[in-house]
Structures are given as C-alpha cells and as structure tokens.
Write a structure and sequence with these properties.
The chain is an alpha/beta fold. The chain has helices at about 15-30, 45-50, 55-65, 90-100, 125, 165-180, 195-210, 220-230, 245-255, 295-305, 310-330, 340-350; strands spanning about 1-10, 35-40, 70-75, 105-110, 130-135, 145-150, 155-160, 185-190, 215-220, 240, 265-270, 275-280. The protein folds into 2 domains: about 1-100 and about 285-350, Isopropylmalate Dehydrogenase (3-Layer(aba) Sandwich); about 120-255, Isopropylmalate Dehydrogenase.
Length: about 350
C-alpha cells in the first residue's frame, strides 16, 4: 500500500513525540511491505514564527492532498498574546478540523493491565473495568459559533449552534462504533437547560429507533456524566456528546485511566480521511527535556492505520508492541518510570 502522511510536529513536545510515532510507522511499512511518504509541514506557533501564520496555505493544501494527517500538539505561552483568531488553537487546530471536514472525534480510554495502579480511582472501581470510547462532535457547537464582546467590554456572548444533520451524522458514528464494542451508547447533554441539547436528544433518539434498534441507548446530563466517570466508569461503553462537553469529558476520562499521555484520538470525516493526534497539549514545561510520553501519539498512528488505511493487522501490531513495552517496564516519568521519550519509541519499534 502506498500512502502519503502529512506530518505536523507542532509545538512544545510535539516534535519529540511525533518523531517516535513516525519511526514506528516506518517500521510497520518495512515489515508489512508498505510505502509511506512522510510530508512534514509547519503548523501552530512554529509556523507563526517562521511565516507569520499559524496555518500557512501550503500546509493546508498539503493536508488536503494527503491520505491522512499525523499531528503532535500546538500552542503554548509564547503565543498566548496573539489575537484570538490568530492563536494556534483557533487559527491552526480549529481551522484544520473545519477545512478538512473532520466532524467525528474518537477518543478511546482504557486502563492498560500493567498501568492498573496508575489510576487514581479505588482498586475495586478499576477492577470493574474501564474501557470506553468518547465520540465527540468536532465541527459544531460553541467552539464554532459566533463569539461577541460588547463595545464597552462589559459583556460577552458565545453562540452554540447545532443543526439536525450535524447531530444525525455524529449519532450514526457512535451507534456504528457501539456495534463493534458492547452495543451501548450513552448520549450526554444538558437538555434540562439548553435548547440545543433538547434538539440533540430528540435527534439521537430518532436515529437510534429508525436505524440502530439493536443498540442500547440511555441519556445522561453532562454534570452527572462527569460524576459517573469517576464513580462508576464501567457503566460506559460509547459516550456520544457535543463538542465542548466531549472536550471536557474525554480529558477527565484520560485521568481516570492514569495518564493523559496514554490517550490517542482520531478526527474523521465521512470518507475515512482523518487527522490523528494525542489528546494532550504541547506541555511546554517539559519540552526539550526528552521525558514526554510518546505512547498516545504512537497509538494515534495505530488508529490511522485502522480507520484511514484499513490496515487492521498493522494497527494491532503497534498496539501489541505498546502493551509489551509497558509490561517490560520501559516507562516515562508520568507513568512512574525513568525512560526517555526516545527510549520508549525505540522499545515499541523493536517490538513491532
């Protein structure tokens, strides 16, 4: 198989962790006989420093022309003073999602057997099982709504728009994913307060009844969902929710599993094209120290092989190599170990 992967290392620890994921993908290509071309491009603060734009036109064009995108992280205090629309998070990340049509964000969260003690939850809660998937709508809601500030600076307004087609398509992603797992969806909203949530709930129920009657569905308010994620995470199989709620709940889920450095993500559109990235940020406080955990990025690369390229055996090879590396005790400091970023990457690649 011949594929072009747009590689965006980004800011902070991005270059360190993405380099290890690229090395693992290169090992996969060599082992399974594929031809992967890695087209490295600038995005985020690094792009701003080089070009004056966090998302240069040539980078966007390269991403649109690639078969998939591998992204590290963007942003950091150095660029916080930029005007809102020009900041890395807004100009680069949100624009990429919108321009590439990436409406479905998949964020799996599970406790790896060897990291059981890393979870902050009581042992009996962890033993009940933590293996869930957050399906987050990614191109609608308050992040993409209108943002207004009054002329006198004394009031502000953020709009949270959603349409029925937007809700329908993300609901289908969640129900289809549930059929490959434990066949249960929990739709999270705030329907007791928000009109968008009432529309969300009505639409999700209709899609389930008409197209996925075999999938169990329950509804939960977002505040209760946040509580149940730490009280009884085994309740959840697939969590379906809108953009802002999904952002918050998936970060919470990462801590339940023990480390945000272990959680990958896939941002997809309808044809299987995707952008793959760890859910954590650029961590500027540890950038350049060689201690960042690359496993979330490596696992994101596995998701790329599975979801965009249809290479299940290759994705499984990476995931087994990660499991073996964890069992061997080659761990970065966030997991209680002393290994360097590169050491972990080498350990995974050697086990592919």
């Amino acid at each position: 198989m011949k594929k072009t992967i747009a590689v965006i290392k980004g800011d902070g620890i991005g270059p360190e962790i993405v380099s290890e994921a690229v090395a693992v993908l290169a090992k996969i290509a060599a082992k399974f006989g594929h031809d992967f071309t890695f087209d490295e491009r600038l995005v985020g603060g690094a792009a701003y420093d080089a070009t004056g734009d966090c998302l240069p036109d040539e980078t966007l064009a390269a991403c649109k022309g690639a078969d998939a995108v591998l992204l590290g992280a963007v942003g950091g205090p150095k660029w916080d003073a930029l005007p809102g629309p020009k900041r890395p998070e807004k100009r680069a990340l949100l624009t990429l999602r919108k321009e590439l049509g990436l409406f479905a964000n998949l964020r799996p969260a599970k406790v790896w057997p060897t990291l059981r003690d890393a979870s902050p939850l009581k042992a009996q809660v962890v033993d009940d099982g933590i293996d869930l998937l957050v399906v987050r709508e990614l191109t609608g809601g308050v992040y993409f709504g209108e943002h207004l500030r009054s002329a006198d600076g004394q009031s502000a307004l953020d709009k949270m728009p959603y349409s029925v087609p937007e809700i329908e398509r993300i609901a289908r992603v969640a129900f289809a994913a549930a059929r490959t797992r434990r066949n249960r969806v929990t739709s999270v909203d705030k329907a007791n307060v928000l009109e968008t949530s009432r529309l969300w709930r009505e639409t999700v129920q209709r899609i389930r009844n008409a197209e996925y009657p075999d999938v169990a569905l329950d509804f939960m308010y977002v505040d209760n969902a946040a509580m149940q994620l730490v009280r009884a995470p085994s309740h959840f199989d697939v969590i379906l929710t809108e953009n802002m709620f999904g952002d918050i709940l998936s970060d919470e889920a990462s801590q339940v599993t023990g480390s945000i450095g272990m959680l990958p993500s896939a941002s997809l559109r309808g044809d299987g094209f995707g952008m793959y990235e760890p859910i954590h940020g650029s961590a500027p406080d540890i950038a350049g120290k060689g201690v960042a955990n690359p496993l979330a990025t490596i696992l994101s690369a596995a998701m790329m092989l599975r979801h965009s390229f249809g290479l299940e055996a290759e994705a499984g090879a990476i995931e087994r190599a990660v499991a073996s590396t964890l069992e061997s005790g080659v761990l970065t400091p966030d997991l209680g170990g002393t290994a360097a970023t590169h050491d972990v990457g080498v350990a995974v690649a050697s086990r592919v």
